[in-house]
């Protein structure tokens, strides 16, 4: 994810980039360079199910960092067709840091991260997005009495654009692209899991979450 938030640059780090980075004078000394590097690299422990690392820079200085891991769900779904266990996965925030100067931007930073994760989750078959004490579940859109994935709506909209601009193949292509990206809606969930996750995250991040 590349872009800006009120003059602050948003960067997405790969494993290779992290390994080569200079961690001097980042995050106002909230965390040591060695610990931060290890936490970032932990998001890439599983090469087939990599997490994400986002950093926010103000005048070439890192002012915030979000480290998201790609983790398997505890519950396993039985694949009746292949007779194999299919493990579903979550994007889960493991560590995040924001310097005091930018604390007032935390909510907006999290919205940027969430928007990016929603797009990736649709592409990589992620079931839930967990940010601190908030869980966003993948849902289907209800039309009348029938549940239909948003994917079909995207294709329909694409065809509409195709008719409008007299180029139906282009419209279908646009629809498929939007469908793959926004095929499902991620909505906040309030379940028993929320309390369990909240206490677990408080234990894990008690020393790392500072605002």
What is the distance, rounded to the nearest whole angstrom, between the alpha carbons of the first and last residues? 23 Å
Number of domains: 2
Q: If classified by CATH, what would the architecture of the largest domain be?
A: 3-Layer(aba) Sandwich
Structural class: alpha+beta
Number of distinct beta strands: 10
CATH class of the largest domain: Alpha Beta
The count of helical stretches stands at 6
The main pleated sheet reads as: 8 strands, mixed
- The string of secondary-structure elements, in order, is EEHHEEEHEEEEHHEH
Estimated helix fraction: 25-40%
Portion in beta strands: 25-35%
Please mark out the parts with pLDDT under 50 across 5 or more consecutive residues, or reply none: 190-211
The neighbouring-strand order within the major sheet is: 1-2-3-4-5-6-7-10
Average pLDDT taken over every residue: 76
Rg on CA atoms, Å: 19 Å
CATH topology of the largest domain: Aminopeptidase
Give the CA-based shape.
Answer: globular
Features:
211 residues; alpha+beta; Aminopeptidase; 2 domains; 8-stranded mixed β-sheet; 35% strand; globular
Model description:
It is a single chain. This protein is of the alpha+beta class and 211 residues long. The protein folds into 2 domains: 3-138 and 186-205, Aminopeptidase; 141-183, no CATH class. It is 37% helix and 35% strand. It has 6 helices and 10 strands, in the order ββααβββαββββααβα. The protein has helices at residues 15-20, 33-42, 106-123, 150-164, 168-182, 192-205; strands at 3-5, 8-13, 52-58, 61-79, 84-98, 126-131, 134-139, 141-143, 146-148, 185-189. An 8-stranded mixed β-sheet has the order 1-2-3-4-5-6-7-10, with helices on both faces. A two-stranded antiparallel ribbon has the order 8-9. α4 (150-164) packs antiparallel against α5 (168-182). The radius of gyration is 19 Å and the shape is globular.
């Amino acid at each position: 994810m590349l872009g800006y938030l009120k003059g602050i640059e948003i960067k997405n780090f790969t494993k290779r980039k992290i390994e080569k980075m200079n961690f001097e004078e980042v995050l106002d000394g909230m965390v040591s360079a060695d610990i931060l590097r290890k936490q970032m690299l932990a998001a890439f422990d599983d090469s087939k199910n990599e997490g994400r690392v986002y950093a926010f820079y103000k005048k070439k200085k890192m002012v915030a960092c979000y480290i998201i891991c790609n983790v398997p769900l505890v519950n396993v779904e039985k694949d009746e067709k292949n007779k194999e266990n299919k493990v579903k996965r979550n994007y889960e925030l493991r560590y995040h840091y924001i310097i005091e100067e930018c604390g007032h931007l935390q909510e907006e930073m999290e919205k940027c991260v969430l928007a990016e994760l929603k797009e990736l989750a649709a592409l990589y078959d992620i079931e839930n997005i967990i940010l601190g004490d908030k869980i966003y579940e993948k849902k289907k859109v209800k039309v009348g009495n029938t549940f239909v994935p948003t994917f079909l709506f995207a294709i329909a909209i694409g065809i509409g654009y195709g008719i409008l601009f007299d180029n139906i193949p282009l419209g279908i292509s646009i629809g498929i692209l939007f469908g793959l990206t926004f095929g499902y809606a991620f909505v906040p969930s309030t379940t028993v899991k929320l309390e369990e996750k909240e206490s677990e995250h408080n234990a894990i991040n008690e020393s790392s979450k500072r605002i």
